[in-house]
# Entry
Amino acid sequence: MTMITGYRPFVGQHCETTATGNLLRAAGLELSEPMLFGLGEGLSYGVFEFKGMDAPFIGGRSRPDELTRTLASNLGVTIEQRQTRSKARAWSNVADVVDAGRPVAVKLNMRLLDYDTSGTDFAAHYVAVHGYDDENVLVADTAGQGGSQVTSRASFEEARLWKGPMASNALTWSVVDLPTEIDWRTVVRRAIAATATAYLNPPIANFGAQGIRKTAKLVVGWQSYLPGALAQVGMLMERGGTGGGLFRPMYASFLREAGALLGDVSLPAAAQQLDAAGAVWSAIADHLEAYGSDGVRRLEEARDLLLEVADLEEAALTELVG
# Structure
């Protein structure tokens, strides 16, 4: 089997920060997962109802792929991204990087991986590949997906070339070069201000606090979806790594780390607000999961909590524009 010598997997909670964290660690730049998320300006909110999907999608972070591109730009890291619909070229885009002794990040549909237990189509999932042979692929996944895993070449390739919502034509990215030095104080301050500004001034009403309030208006009407489909939304939010119950505490940890770096005592206060928001998001996910067995009251409870968390987050992010 072809494997990267001395490889140490970076295991995180969220798939994109985990994949990119693996690449940066292997290149010699090791950051905490909250710092990766914060410098990637990952904190956001979005709600979408895609044609062909059985339920809405609720996301507590920036759009897929944007986090890594923003992180690389903020840090001055050079990355190479590739996409293709060719099965042969898709595989060479992985193998060529691993053969050169570097891990490569891959976007795919997690349901099709041999070890997946979610049973849910989600094509905005990321893993880092660090070994392969004719039959199997070695990947670093999130802690929730078991960390270091092995999946068959057949399932891996099918997952990458799956067509559906959020799929990206066998997308890969790899780290090409690191900067010689980083002005951490400037980078951190700029990332915090940019995150807050984008959250408070979304391009459309699906994003930010506006998007949360829009969701509150929609959620009781989601009775038209099958109860099991809404339960999957709640599961993905809370345990699949898409919701605010993960990302608000993660950003809060980033703010505490940033506060220590910058000597800014206001950042831990904002962190405390976002920790509180994370707890509300976990309760919202619980209500969606329980809707099938407990009726429309659960959707009404979710609506009220959505309005609460929109106010809480708007206040916290307003303090960070600074």
Q: What stands out?
A: Residues 266-294 form the longest helix (29 residues). The two ends are 52 Å apart (CA to CA). The chain is about 50% helix and 15% strand. The chain has a mean pLDDT of 94.
